[in-house]
Amino acid sequence: MKVTDIISMSAKPALYEKGTAFMWTDEHISKQLLQVHLNEDVDLASRKMTSIVRTANWILETLKSKEKLNILDLGCGPGLYAEILTKEGHNVTGVDISANSIAHAKKSAQEEGLDINYINESYIDLDFEENTYDLILIIFTDIGVLVPEDRNTLLQKVYRALKPGGTFIFDVLSDNDLEQKIAPKNWEASQGGFWNENPYIALSESFLYAEEKVILYQHLVMDNDEKMDIYRFYTHFFSTADIKNMIENYGFKNISHRDDILPEADLWNGKNVIFTITSK
Fold first, then answer.
1. Which residues of the chain fall below pLDDT 50?
2. pTM (2 decimals)?
3. Fewest C-beta atoms under 10 Å: which of 38, 112, 274, 278?
């Protein structure tokens, strides 16, 4: 592979142009992600366990329900929130695209004696039963990494799946200090690590699409055979007005926001994360 080929591949793409590889279902990378999920001391694939417990407690306090609720946890990962909510007596269904995360979640639930329904599928493709859930959750800013078409599909499905009066809680990244969230160029040479079990070089860069409030985090990973995989993560940033405009179109009402759920720590926590509570 020529250097000019790499330069061409690393250029800023058209907005929402897809990469050539998908991280969440890659056998090796998904195993690495699971280990990051389970690391209680970092805010990466999941938040720190202290933040997870804090968020789950806030959700339970917000609902103030003494009845058993039907809860749908979208992008549930290894079941960290699902287990907390189930232990409080609720019926929880968790959905995640990662087979490794779902396998771990099922094993953990069995070991804990918890009855949790886990589904290994993309929540964009899954059809939910109408008027079924008292609460639907999408936590850790998943909505913000969906392209608009997928986000619109998801919001339609969420509204349809909620019972009348049901609650939808999700979080997004705030659009404040947007340029500070552009990651600098970075490269990694490894004998085997996060991106590949074999030797690789990874070139990482981010690009701002200011008008759309989107930052692309792009990673080019070349293996020992000079095969190049391109991973692209388009991350959207929102104001409270943006959120209101986005979800009102689908019929959601009683919209409120909180930016004080997570402790202040860095650009991805504290007031940089907006939680939204709304209902059908």
1. none
2. 0.94
3. 112
